[in-house]
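Reviewers of the previous submission asked for a worked example of the structure-prediction workflow described in the proposal, so we include one complete record here. The input consisted solely of the amino acid sequence. No template or homolog information was supplied to the procedure at any stage.
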Amino acid sequence: MTFNGWIQIAIYFALILVCVKPLGLYMARVFNGERTFLTPVFRPVERGLYRICGVDEAQEQHWIAYTVGMLLFSLASFLLLYGLQRLQAVIPLFNPAGMAAVSPDSSFNTSVSFTTNTNWQGYGGETTMSYLTQMAGLTVQNFVSATVGIVLAIALVRGFARRQARTVGNFWVDLTRGVLYVMLPMSIVVCLALVALGVPQNLAAYTDAATLEGAKQVIAQGPAASQIAIKQLGTNGGGFFNANSAHPLENPNALSNLIEMWSILVISAALTYTFGVMVKNTRQGWAIFWVMSVLFFAGLTVTYWAETHGNPALTALGIDQHVSALQPGGNMEGKEVRFGITNSTIWATATTDASNGSVNSMHDSYMPFGGIIPIINIQLGEIIFGGTGSGLYGMLLFAIIAVFVAGLMVGRTPEYLGKKIEAREVKMSMLAILILPFSILGFTAIACVIQPGLSSLNNAGPHGFSEILYAFTSGTGNNGSAFAGLNANTPFYNTTIGLAMLIGRFAMIVPMMAVAGSLAAKKLVPPSAGTFPTTGTLWVGLLVGVILIMGGLTYFPALALGPVVEHFAMQAGNLF
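From that input alone, the workflow returned the following structure tokens.
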């Protein structure tokens, strides 16, 4: 750990922090239907889309209708993307490399993955997908699946903000505004920046190049910048190229690396201020932001420490792993040498705090305590800023549990934002939270005892277990990253991880929307002397404690079998 490294971390966080208020305020105005500086540009387009689709923007929906609309839209997205992959060999458009049809199990897995905003990829993008599939399929889903997460969070926020209401908004209106006013303009700006820095954006055929040794190398081309911009901003993750953001054409230099890392968290962080504006108490939004920030720095510190201290087995062999003018020090295995340990660990932490999953280094090569943090970040529900929208509504579900705990302490009905939190809200919140470990631990247990699960392992012992645990953690958490030592492009893993992605996305959303509908129907209760304050340091500490205790009780036994035992075995010199 170096002073220079901490300066880089501080700069990164500062760039996120300065965007929270202006972007958060802008999004609040968008979803409240207020005028913004982009209204003259996009309002005619918005009205036209409503006329074409037959949407009455003044007609709001009950939470059930809102949820059904979201589910039907996601089903249509899945079917269209599946068909595009299966038919890409016979569609003559934008397929200069002559890509064959994608297999049924891989098409199923990828369609589920991009529809659920997971972007888990069991394939190499430049060797599997045509330009048409990348643009009309994957990139489109990057826009709409990310926006679905945002509008669901907005629906829950409206549940807190409204009194005795039967509706939580209109799904089709929220989706349209989210894409037009938030995702599209931000993606255009980031895309142009990446193109200027050297990221390809073309429809050219792949380039045949001769290496210095005289060999032939095929260099992939394509509309990469447009997909990379939205995959980062929408916390979708994945990659246009197989090597993801470690690929020099996807992430050419230090500036592109900073822009892409900034894009991962900026919208999710700003949504906390959107929350504060919409409930008419910005201190509530800042409290949620600082809870996320505390957990972010805790995880980043552990990962940064583990990677800069290096591998004790190499130290025992007399290999110098200290930082000096001639070497970066620490554990450089799997790291991108252009960016070093600091930027690799920032990315690894941010991408798993969010439901992003893109990488600029290989998590499978991290030290055990460096790799455990990405796993924990996802297992906590990716609420540390989290995915676009999904991080906020996941954190608010934990907030409901935290005020319930606080109510038990003082012996009165808990309240949050002027709403009494009763049995229905607590039960639905717990159901939404417990769905994740049900899928993660259940599928991991199955994969560890049957041959189709074990046959994909390249590593035995606790590290192999960690690879399986990470795969189902990533799938259920709609993250998409992986330890990568596991061959997941098999019928068993394509199917089971696909099911895990569906469970992690939609089985959590339904009870969360039930909470939104229940809260919207409640009347506001004025604060009293017994109301637990939810804006100060005490509240931040309580919410952080509830999150960590629930996560520890749920996942520690599984983590002890993988990264924890691997760490102590490594310290003892008994490498697996």
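The chain has 19 helices and four strands. We consider this example representative of the routine output the project will generate in years two and three.
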